[in-house]
Amino acid sequence: MKILVIGATGTIGKEIYNALKKNHEVYRAHRNSDTYPVDITNKNSIKSLFEKLPKLDAVINAAGTASWKSLSDLKEEDYYLGIKSKLMGQVNLVHIAKDYLKENGSITLTTGILAEHYEPNAVALSLVNGAIHSFVHAASNELNRGIRLNTVAPGAIAGDFPKDQKFAGYLPVEIEDVVKIYEHILTTKNTGQILKIY
Ligand SMILES: NC(=O)c1ccc[n+]([C@@H]2O[C@H](COP(=O)([O-])OP(=O)(O)OC[C@H]3O[C@@H](n4cnc5c(N)ncnc54)[C@H](OP(=O)(O)O)[C@@H]3O)[C@@H](O)[C@H]2O)c1
């Protein structure tokens, strides 16, 4: 398969890239890439990345951020960071990727445990993760040409967080197990799924 991984140097993205490149032709994109630079907050940047690449079987996004602040510290502008990056970055990616992928292509987004479990200072992330879950449920019904849309919702990744310390009420998860879910989605016919691992 020809697969694009966005955010491919991050904690999650680099492990997805390393696992997939063993058996697939994988393109590694992120903002500071020399070969495939992309900023998901900018629609033109996403489009020009797809213009550079051959027809793809799949795109996986593991990029996107939001503000880490308590409710009392969050200003309206702080919410827009996550709305522009993790939320609309991924929504715009779907809008653009659906026209560039091959028939039956796969789009996989990344959300996280915070969509449904509380962690201090993570209100703005909870907001965008929940919105993406609703978007995936609905938008997956309206994709043509057999294009599939799913999201992986991991807990905190062990290594980034201490293994024995709970995050949002759950212990961290091993990155190898998280990567297996991204790989599995490529081989199924599932769409509209929120694949939770925590
Ligand atoms: N790490 C965790 O424990 C964890 C758990 C659950 C969910 N998540 C979610 O998973 C996603 C990835 O997290 P991570 O910890 O792997 O992130 P990370 O280590 O900070 O890596 C982010 C990756 O995305 C790229 N990137 C950042 N902003 C970008 C943008 N606007 N456009 C394109 N690429 C961009 C970065 O490279 P450049 O700087 O070169 O762009 C890097 O490759 C996030 O949405 C996060 O909320 C993470």
TrEMBL record:
Query: InterPro entries attached here?
Result: NAD(P)-bd_dom_sf, SDR_DHRS6-like, SDR_fam
Query: Gene3D superfamilies, per this entry?
Result: NAD(P)-binding Rossmann-like Domain
Q: Under what name is this protein listed? A: Short chain dehydrogenase
SUPFAM superfamilies in alphabetical order: NAD(P)-binding Rossmann-fold domains
- Pfam families according to UniProt: adh_short_C2
- Family to which this protein belongs: Belongs to the short-chain dehydrogenases/reductases (SDR) family.
The signal peptide annotation in the UniProt record is none
Q: What species is this protein from?
A: Aquimarina rubra
Alphabetically sorted, this entry's keywords are:
Oxidoreductase
